[in-house]
Fold each of these.
Amino acid sequence: MRLRYKVWLEHEELGKAFGDGPLELLDRVERSGSLRQAAADMGMSYNKAWHLMRKLEKAIGFPLLECRSGGPHGGGSVITPRARELMAHYRRFREQVAQSLAELYRRNFADFGWLDKPG
Amino acid sequence: MRLRYKVWLEHEELGKAFGDGPLELLDRVERSGSLRQAAADMGMSYNKAWHLMRKLEKAIGFPLLECRSGGPHGGGSVITPRARELMAHYRRFREQVAQSLAELYRRNFADFGWLDKPG
């Protein structure tokens, strides 16, 4: 037996605003310098990734990506400083959530003898 | 902006083993004394509720319901003592999860000024 969970940030009207998927996409943009490449690596169309970014930006209220034109590789996408800040906060939040839920699971269900049994 | 989450207990092979839905169903069985009534109140077929109970019992490894036959109302379903214990632990776990996640959300995202804004 094990604990499973999902967490995400949600805008009251616009729906999902940030979560593990967007974090992974932004991480990949940061490494590759390209939203197109990041989307492809996650099996997502560029069109879908682009719309997702616009929706997230609207929900959180600040830009996540900036376009850089020119340069030796013909430009690409760059993470904004506030996006980087959000990513760092969300990553830390996710780690603390994982620790806290594992501890609460142990504390509340240890009596049932499930915890170390496979299955 | 707000935090959303889902938590549940999962058996490695059998899938979902306990969560908010099963807790509500058992709560209703406890109050009504009838799985059929409890299922109907949740808009679920008796057949579905019955299969769900058998699956949960298999996953957690002990019986949740006992049938009582006879009596003035023609018998019904009764929660087992271990089911009651599981329900109490799960309810406490859910409360602690809610408190902990609200606190972690405040701690990590207070800087973004989202917390008290509607939307």
Note: The radius of gyration of chain A is 18 Å.
Amino acid sequence: MERTFIVRGDIIQAPEKERIEEHGDSYLVVTDGLVEGIFSSIPSRFSHYRLVDCRGHIVMPGLSDLHVHASQYQFRGMWMDEELIDWLNRHTFPEEEKYRDRDYAERAYRIFVDDLVRSPTTRASIFATIHLDSTLVLASYLEDSGIKAYVGKVNMDRNSTAGLSEDSAQSLEDTQSFIERTEGWTNVRPIITPRFIPSCTDGLMKALARLAVDRGLPVQSHLSENRSEIEWVKELCPDSTSYADAYRRRGLWGATPTIMAHCVHSTGREEDLLAMDGIFIAHCPDSNANLSSGIMDARRYLDAGCRIGLGTDVAGGCSLSMLRAMGDAVRVSKLRASCVDPSLKALTLAEAFHMASVIGGSFFGKVGLFEPGWEADIVVLDESGIATTLEDLSLSARLERVVNLKSEGAVMHKAVCGRWLF
Amino acid sequence: MERTFIVRGDIIQAPEKERIEEHGDSYLVVTDGLVEGIFSSIPSRFSHYRLVDCRGHIVMPGLSDLHVHASQYQFRGMWMDEELIDWLNRHTFPEEEKYRDRDYAERAYRIFVDDLVRSPTTRASIFATIHLDSTLVLASYLEDSGIKAYVGKVNMDRNSTAGLSEDSAQSLEDTQSFIERTEGWTNVRPIITPRFIPSCTDGLMKALARLAVDRGLPVQSHLSENRSEIEWVKELCPDSTSYADAYRRRGLWGATPTIMAHCVHSTGREEDLLAMDGIFIAHCPDSNANLSSGIMDARRYLDAGCRIGLGTDVAGGCSLSMLRAMGDAVRVSKLRASCVDPSLKALTLAEAFHMASVIGGSFFGKVGLFEPGWEADIVVLDESGIATTLEDLSLSARLERVVNLKSEGAVMHKAVCGRWLF
């Protein structure tokens, strides 16, 4: 009965991208981790359920972070004055090398997982590092935390720093080991994670593609984040018609559910591939600003019906907060409209909310909505500390204030699949 | 002796725009509100001074907010899905109309001033509304708070909503009354505040210009925030060669110290006027994103030696935090470089810090730096709640983390001109 209860509170969700649905002082009924529905009073058939009283607080679906590097959490919010390549070489790669040491990984991943638990994220697709042992540490902490996550042991067998490069056979073997050693786990599942085209040989990519299909595992990687990266891929893959096509030719494109992060500079044919092949796009607005990547055209993908969710991309992004990612997505879309293409309307709060909950959630199952039969991922917000207003606010306005003014430390309770984490 | 003391802590400042100066575990000596200097140990001549022990905490100069609307604070962080004109008509003007009621003003300004006290701002240039009584309420709360502020009774005698329009003579008379009734105050001084060209007749503008010069009062207004606004000014002032020139012809341009907020779309001749006439530019990055105004070219003004500081522009901007304004200034400058003009380098943390402290501070006097003889505006930061790192961080990296991850609620102590507010 632990995962069977009723939450009373101000319930809000974004069932469609155009629409935020508000249920002031209502009841969310959950049976064995699955949603029964939202009710204005408790139906008699549920009257014996335990009541979780969150009256006066916003109750919203959990958010899904489609792209985050756990191994970069130690330096989030820092060193943002550097350009991408310097930032990678001076900070990102040296930091990731430290995860060769299991002890370091234990201490660093402990901090990451504890903070992720306190964040509005209930589902995440996570990059670890190339190191098998450390990646298992991260996976085990997540498994115990109750957050549902895909965790990727990263593959890198070329064009990497000396301390962060694998032998191709070992890379594949370690990936297989990671898959085997997490088999049957409840919360964590493995995801095939070639860092990106430049850091993986064709041979490794093709072997990873076979592994993904054989084991029915999803895939995550990076696509068209930065112009010089795209030029590099062109040089490396002269046979490919686009960066996306390079993944496709190597078999790592939509054969199983696939997340591609960024897609800032995807054009024409690549856009078509993203749409046609049902690729999940992880839009990471803060990271794309911090690393001077640009502003992706979220409006176009969203209107085309693409599967575009949001990612924090820590540590390119500063914060683990998906609430902040929602605000950032809206803000940068306005800057794109004013600086690049005024014909494209900015994103709305409803759209960003829908992306962070429903679209992102669909990578993980029936997640992100309080509809009958959906998994009960629930976030209860703490609005304290945002100055009082003299007049009552709508639920949407209250959510918008949290998004814009209290994206850190705003979660007071969280449940994943009906299990309360705190 | 209240304003004479020594602060021990990790002292950081940005004396030049290229350089953040770090003094780990050092002593800031203050005599009667003025800085004596930063020392690595306490000089014997100051050994009898009271010690304020902030060991382990960042001690930085107070920040100067060059542009903020106190009367919009009630709805900050909300209604950001609307375009500028809808946003003004549906929310901003109806909200400002409420300040006709002194009781409402008392309740709303109390919240604003209390939050401003808790913010990293020690000096601010503030818009109230057209209402004399309410503006006096705001001024008196600020006077008592200890924050040093310029407060403007707003002038609007044309093109305004019915509830927010003044008779020209009354507008002038109320402005004069506001000036007289705040004469001799310690912390608050009046500032001449025509809302912007479209909302003031030429006659009123010219009378305000005379008033500014006669009383030696500074001026604040808005300039080139939005393209349709600029077109409107062109229609209203066919004789002027630019929006800036329209202010200049009406005498409200640099005759006394002048702040112009935004300057997002200033070009050629207008840029020259801003530089030549020593106008203070209030760069408001968050507001310019939220209202789809665009990204102003801060790099160009900064490199040209212009007086460009930062403003929060609440409620176009979401937050009162000038720490957040620093982070936003860096971030949008990167988006400008990636989306508009890659030849212009993004702002650095040092530059944003210098703008928020030294350049902005210079509007208020010798403010924003811990140099001998400068006024001791001091902010002590609380870094708690930002997850621990496994390795020690430089002072700059710690400041950057606060800017990017804890811009709200980050101030643990604050002094203005040597007087501790908390």
Note: Chain B touches chain A through 56 residues (CB under 8 Å).
Amino acid sequence: MSDQMNGAESLVRTLVAGGVDVCFTNPGTSEMHFVAALDRVEGMECVLCLFEGVATGAADGWARMTERPASTLLHLGPGLANGLANLHNAKKAMTPIVNVVGEHTTTHLQYDAPLTSDIEGLARPMSAWVRTGRDSRSIAADGADAIAAAKTAPGGIATLILPADTAWGEGSGVAPMPLPPPRTKVDDVAIAATAAALAKGKETLFFVGTGAVREKSLAVAAAIAKKTGARLLGPTSVARTERGAGRVPLLRLPYPVDFARAVLADVKTIVLCGARDPVAFFGYPGKPSRLADPATTVMTLATAADDLEDALTRLADRLKAQGVAPDLAPLQRAPLPTGALTPEAAGAVIAHHLPEGAIVVSESITTGRNFHALTLTAAPHDWLEITGGSIGIGPPLALGAAVACRHRKVVNLQADGSAMYTVQALWSQARTRANVLTVIWSNRSYAILKMELANVGAANPGRKALDMLSLADPDLDWVALARGMGVDGRRVTTADEFAVAFRDGLKEAGPYLIEAVI
Amino acid sequence: MSDQMNGAESLVRTLVAGGVDVCFTNPGTSEMHFVAALDRVEGMECVLCLFEGVATGAADGWARMTERPASTLLHLGPGLANGLANLHNAKKAMTPIVNVVGEHTTTHLQYDAPLTSDIEGLARPMSAWVRTGRDSRSIAADGADAIAAAKTAPGGIATLILPADTAWGEGSGVAPMPLPPPRTKVDDVAIAATAAALAKGKETLFFVGTGAVREKSLAVAAAIAKKTGARLLGPTSVARTERGAGRVPLLRLPYPVDFARAVLADVKTIVLCGARDPVAFFGYPGKPSRLADPATTVMTLATAADDLEDALTRLADRLKAQGVAPDLAPLQRAPLPTGALTPEAAGAVIAHHLPEGAIVVSESITTGRNFHALTLTAAPHDWLEITGGSIGIGPPLALGAAVACRHRKVVNLQADGSAMYTVQALWSQARTRANVLTVIWSNRSYAILKMELANVGAANPGRKALDMLSLADPDLDWVALARGMGVDGRRVTTADEFAVAFRDGLKEAGPYLIEAVI
């Protein structure tokens, strides 16, 4: 078989054999052999995206849910460039992704044709691994190396550049898959030191993120905190948290610098477990970047790349916390609100109706400030967030999560300004009949920037500055935008209307959109 | 005054003093001092874009029409990344642009906050000049250097990275403006050699592009061709051509490789004037990259960076072509078609109704194949095209051209697949009341890729491959999409309906959209 196979087909077969069985694509001419190979290979699900930022964000969502790398197919340097912003988010989320980026045939590059650019240069800032294929017989092995690189703990972006001749030339069959290195086991010294710090009780903060906020690990961390009296807290944003009723109700560090510093003010020691020494999102005049008090000791139990489960188990053993039952959140359905559609009312509706097993994709910093707390006692669910600050991740992330988990409801709580960046995701949601309920918080402004303009000390903004932060004139009509891409929806303006729309929207089998004017 | 001014204000004032008096913005927190400074400085027009690819494409359109650099304001690495695809196009068009990219405060960078990335690394592939500001007192001088770099012939992208503290710290007033180096005068040897080649008549091709296809220079080039009998031709795509009735009817090299090679087959010498040795857009199995016959001699009169006007004048003098009147296109209004809305019928309607002084932005490779020829005898107009092959330039380019030329009608002839990349441009067109008539060719596919799939030898594509090239399921509803962003429009399905809609649409004072189902 291998001698009838071109490079593209050997690469696609290698990806599927390596467990990379989804491809979010936006192909062009140079990728046509790869596209043709998709026809001949069973087992690769292909999702067309009408903009590359949708493809990369969807790959992130898929991989966060499956814990396997997703692949993308992108068209030369500009196609990759369009996908970089959500690759930045995926990098910060430590999501494994394999990008396949088309490139001119090797012999064509010297002519500096219109689409020629420095693809490796573009890929490097967001990628842990970059390689340009050399020939059609080694391209499958390159693909196998890319998968191994993406899977190397804590997970990262691997970008394989595919010159067209390496796709159309003779391939060499499915390449063997190198094993990624195993996660590092934490040494006993770190266990002993952090155990001693945690044993000091409430002056110590157990700061847990990434893999430590999945149900099982988080329960162990909470048992340790209960046993020792140490405080338990999560970072401001985490790629994926398992939470809700029956799970540990983990609070998170607030986003505003002053609030975060107040939370950390009386902490003597921070023990990091899959999280990093907390820093401010932005630097501000006269405010420190590190959020902990300079006198606070910071020690690491385990980094995101380490074997967190093992570290937590050994730490619990040492602290004799294994028999301790952590406090778990009860199921408490918030009562349905009526009247004005405030952020609090919206949060109550969501917490009330959220179905068991839902996947919440939250990209609503200002409107959604309280959603996280309000859903602590909702039905158990996954919570996915933006971790890299590059807005426009929500609708693609929801698409990817829905493709990965066909039988779960995805709820995308989405700021309007951010949604416009990757609005094309709605079309792919319609095409794939993705089980996504999108709620657009239509406040018609970059609301966070109005706060930030004050934060940086720019008082009394004038007309021109305010125009740069406002999405009014004209108002976006989200129901029309959704319909334009084949997604049905409705607009609501009160808490009562929102409660009905949210309940109805959850019953839809495919994508549905609610524009919540707030 | 200078001692009351912060770095941001000194930079904005320097930009305005340097003739950079438009800013296409998509700001974030780190750019808030720049935004605040925009309030305090007269003379900078600000246009908010809801996605950075719109901002960079609009800057390109503005600068192509004004021949001065436009500026953009982008939010850190991901904001720049979102703008890179259209910066790629602008780079290939040799358009002068000054990007101002926000960055964390200098002291914040060491903490690797969520939005931290390698901004210089991202900027370099598309920029001729990249600099990160060091302090608030030198940031205005950095801005002046950026303008000079953007203006350096043939024109390029200058990217200035603005750490937040260089914006909020004390500024130093308006910086003096360094003069960009003058364009190089072509030496007499090149004039003599190319004159001798052109004198050989029709075996020589005079291949003219960039600055040589503006009305005045093109008339000189056509006079030379008429005098010598040499053939005159333009590249497949050019950033901006002045054409239509009363101007030289310049034909262009066809896009398909076989057609292009046929056109060049009997050429013994190619004389380049602001154009490059023609190469294929993509490499294909068994086809050469260079389009000219290997035996053809290629010589350069002048590159795009040289003083083309001077070179053409001296060449005309030497060839005694100064008194020759070139053949100019007559005004011939095509008759209005009826019946099916074929690409030919659409082109006839456009050629018939195109108003004098229109700016045509063409991004419709398949449907628009014949539009270029059909409009040769339309009313005089400018024709702007995609030169870098990164799709999604049309609606932003039209926005920028309309902001630059308030009293001219902009007609954006736009493929549907490409339009989806930067669909957010319609909102900025609505907000600025941009005088843009957009015609979406709704063929519901990446039509060019269906051809390319065959071109690369991938015969009999299957369901999966075809799904990756089709925009159907669901069909995009362009009238709904436009309404969602505050732009009115209608859908047409026949030549008769299109003729009425196009005529009516031209009468609108602001943006209007026609979805032409074709």
Note: Chain A touches chain B through 102 residues (CB under 8 Å).
Amino acid sequence: MLRVAIIGGSGYTGLELLRILAGHPKVRVIAVTSRAYKDTPVSEVPCFRGFYEGLKFTEPADFKGIKADIAFSALPHSVSQEAVPGLLKAFGRVIDLSADFRLKDEAAYRTWYGEHKSPWLLKEAVYGLPELNREKIKKARLVANPGCYPTGAILALAPLLKRGLVRPDSIIIDSKSGVSGAGRKAALETSFVEVAGGFKAYKVGCHRHTPEIEQGLSSLTGGADGVKIVFTPHLIPISRGILTTAYAELKRHVSTDSLIGLYNEFYEGERFVRMLPEGRFPDVGNVRRSNYCDIGIYLDAGRKRVIAISAIDNLVKGASGTAVQNMNIMAGFKETLSLDGPPVAI
Amino acid sequence: MLRVAIIGGSGYTGLELLRILAGHPKVRVIAVTSRAYKDTPVSEVPCFRGFYEGLKFTEPADFKGIKADIAFSALPHSVSQEAVPGLLKAFGRVIDLSADFRLKDEAAYRTWYGEHKSPWLLKEAVYGLPELNREKIKKARLVANPGCYPTGAILALAPLLKRGLVRPDSIIIDSKSGVSGAGRKAALETSFVEVAGGFKAYKVGCHRHTPEIEQGLSSLTGGADGVKIVFTPHLIPISRGILTTAYAELKRHVSTDSLIGLYNEFYEGERFVRMLPEGRFPDVGNVRRSNYCDIGIYLDAGRKRVIAISAIDNLVKGASGTAVQNMNIMAGFKETLSLDGPPVAI
Amino acid sequence: MLRVAIIGGSGYTGLELLRILAGHPKVRVIAVTSRAYKDTPVSEVPCFRGFYEGLKFTEPADFKGIKADIAFSALPHSVSQEAVPGLLKAFGRVIDLSADFRLKDEAAYRTWYGEHKSPWLLKEAVYGLPELNREKIKKARLVANPGCYPTGAILALAPLLKRGLVRPDSIIIDSKSGVSGAGRKAALETSFVEVAGGFKAYKVGCHRHTPEIEQGLSSLTGGADGVKIVFTPHLIPISRGILTTAYAELKRHVSTDSLIGLYNEFYEGERFVRMLPEGRFPDVGNVRRSNYCDIGIYLDAGRKRVIAISAIDNLVKGASGTAVQNMNIMAGFKETLSLDGPPVAI
Amino acid sequence: MLRVAIIGGSGYTGLELLRILAGHPKVRVIAVTSRAYKDTPVSEVPCFRGFYEGLKFTEPADFKGIKADIAFSALPHSVSQEAVPGLLKAFGRVIDLSADFRLKDEAAYRTWYGEHKSPWLLKEAVYGLPELNREKIKKARLVANPGCYPTGAILALAPLLKRGLVRPDSIIIDSKSGVSGAGRKAALETSFVEVAGGFKAYKVGCHRHTPEIEQGLSSLTGGADGVKIVFTPHLIPISRGILTTAYAELKRHVSTDSLIGLYNEFYEGERFVRMLPEGRFPDVGNVRRSNYCDIGIYLDAGRKRVIAISAIDNLVKGASGTAVQNMNIMAGFKETLSLDGPPVAI
């Protein structure tokens, strides 16, 4: 059994890790920390009644006595970067779900997030999108688990950029996310009454996932050309799910058939990417509580535009599901362990 | 592997059976029928993309060539009673999710539903609430899977009636159900716009689950006294979940402690019933997409009333989950197979 | 023009007062206070863009220079009782939307809320339910605007108690409220993700509206007998609306017809109470954003029970709508001014 | 009093007309037709209890005895075109809420909708977007009330195209609509359970509002250049509201200030268009149940893109509200009558 520690277990990504790992046949969660829930049995979280008997939330700093084989850090960004060096020392391998180790460029981190406290780890950290980086993840000590918007956007556009089919300066990404993406702290903006029945764009032109998406897409173009995107996130009054509608200008004429063929080839063997046939487009409802990313493609031949639409569950494929997928890869397990159930469509 | 046939696979309970059985280690679904989806691969139901490869929906009547060990009938009531005799003949064992074989009394069936076409099976059919009828279910040929409201109501009140603690004519059951309880046919009353943001009582004093609840509760009193209830169902603008708030008058003084103790004792060893400690009450969110029934108890000593509140997922513990639990019992499997994951609280 | 001051204008009841009064032909809001929004123009509240030009939120304490004819206090309970004496002095007449002046019995207030700081006003304050207390409201200096649950419960049951038809110790009130009832402060329990898709009972047996409902119902029985209720509030994942399902035991036999006739007679001429015909029951959707209270009645002759179901919008008839209705009465205006638009059913 | 007839009164736009006109001081609805509700009093529609006493729904064809000054046709497209000639004859002036008279080009209508049965009226019909066509609407016999998506899209982009600031072939319109946009017929795709918690794009590249948006935008460019758009509609799990996120490439450099200034100037005096200041973006919640269109602008100077975001209530500004605005204009009333209440933000 792989012994796992979860640092920061009471946020949505931490709780989702607990949910996914509860059914993992080769894992034992031996520690879970939370300042808020300190000393509370995990089984007192109402949905976990009857699960994780004997396991209590502990102080985040308190992992000295713990003998884990791997740690997940589900701490907020800027906090996580302070904890990760200690976690690496204590456990050897860390999957960090925060934004702290995703950007390779320290200056970019500083611009978007502020001063980095463990910059020496940025180079070593492996960007943990298994569909693109599987081989590096296998041996990584530190995996930077991708952000939710970047996961949806990069998977939607990767084949187009890899094959050089679209102009890298033409990309517009119009994304829509459920409310759990904002985290689990009380705030008027995410209260039920303020959100229900509404719909809005937010952080227009200034969302912190912009440089992460640009870095991810640029890495696919052979480095020749930096990808610059227009990115507009919106808030959907649902708990989970991200739909990404991405627009790009084609460099040359292609048919819908060959476009979909290209995607099918690019994602061949990828269990968690499901290409839809022509004329079908994804619904976040159809990937809910699953690790799947559904993708549909539309070609506007007249306007020479391709529309690539992807749907993920932001807490699973956009966070804790990919984190467990990375863990499976790192541990040499079957990659789909505990992740391959069907979505819960309703 | 147990070979399973699902008759009526495109309604919510049929699809939920497919979802639950997709992860069952000892089951193979070898046939699934649906008039609406006839000849469509199951993997074209969007959420099942990548699952059930090779399996197609077939005509309901078309089960002659099928060699299944057990069949689920997820047909609507009054239709199911016509199919079940044939299913018993073909497969030997049937779990019927409709209301057709739940009432023991043919006259009661006639009053509430209309003429019964296979009344000779009413006596043989076993009411499939495992927490009360496990031994009979083991050997049953025909299991009448309980209704969603009755499951929540009977589990909430069973210990009180079994121990003779409450007046059987004092029971008021105020239930609230998500919209999937109405089934999967298009109707203005269950359309998004008509339901969202609303809340109402419906079929006040005349819901067909009334006699089923009364039969279930009466069976616990030793037959001495028929239980007569006041039952008010309400519609919650959510997809899944039933909360049942039941009120009963105590015959004699008891303490909260001893009441909760009584419940704990009654449900000892029942994996799917989770008693909450004093002062905690269930939320349908905490049993969502799970087979659990959470129960909380409040004692109003002054008014000599007990309030018993239960929460279930109407499609799981209230339908397809209990059906699979029954199947596990009938097949001699571990009862919790494919059913013991944690709820998806958000 | 009646000059109105709103004290505490940034909570849901304060904002709803602003919404209702924006269209009032005989009112001018000359002051609105809010600690949180201090110095912000009302027109910067996004929905009020284009309204209330020139009006700014001011410090709550800052009403010395204000020459208003009447003040609404939309402050939280326990805060309001400190402000009201000053408001009375400054403006002469006050409608208090908090719970602070609703209970006549200071000891009851102490038990449920804590020490009262202006107890000498309890006797003078008029309980502001216009359908029961119109004459007293006309001349009141201080109106205690009813709570949301009490409004729905009292209107549903008043005719039964007034006519002595039901046993006063038999009443069970099972209420369901939208989330705005919890007020407009950030809290994890009312965040979108925690609430959406769930449904639960809360404060079972201990909700502070219990004594207010009992006082209101008792006042109808001629004082002979104190009414004691069982009251269970539930949280609906919608923003607005309360459905109250009340159960009571009949003292003698009556027909459904005569029951509904009794209600029609009791509420004759009441514009804001809409009795539904036999077999119809209210939906909170059908009173949304209106001052109406819809009531439907069911008689269970066999069990000698009557079920009275009412629906209100908790922020309108359950708070700010009734407050404006009271203001209209106090000012000698037509009672329905600015309140008689049709509900917004979807 | 203006005597008004509503043809097709039981769909969402017909019911919304009834809601808005219930409070109109200069209008009397003297007839309302509905095949489904024939002979039913309007006051039996639950939300209208207490309103429109004496008015019954009648057969659609049955308007011979009616003496109305103006008719609204809220019939579905292709049905409306058969009724409108008769309505014009009977009443003289018609506001048609269907798509039937919006496209000027009969061939385009044929391509997108099918054969037109009253094509001779296409030329005469005035496209009823008051902010662009007020003068023509004043004298129009037949007003083609704009579609919901086109209203949001055209208002968001009009100033840019009118001033020739953006490349007409660069426009991408990513729109999101609430479910009421799909109309009020029972359908599985719009049922609560199928929609709740989901989010998807639909009719990608083939939505019938595409040519209407292109026609509306092209009319602003001086006819020099036909505007060709990429248009992607999405379904939001809310009842009302459309958010339109439109992207366009600037022809030359402008500042954010001058862009917003341009919009303010363009919409000066328009009561129902509310420009937001820099850094603020609209939320459909803030225009709910109102006739307002909120617009926010973002300039991506580096990418030379402008993002224009608009929010409307699809049933009000996107349908029945604009229809009443048109009626006010045609009748010489104050344009805002019955339409100028504040939005209901929650």
Note: Chain D is about 25% helix and 20% strand.
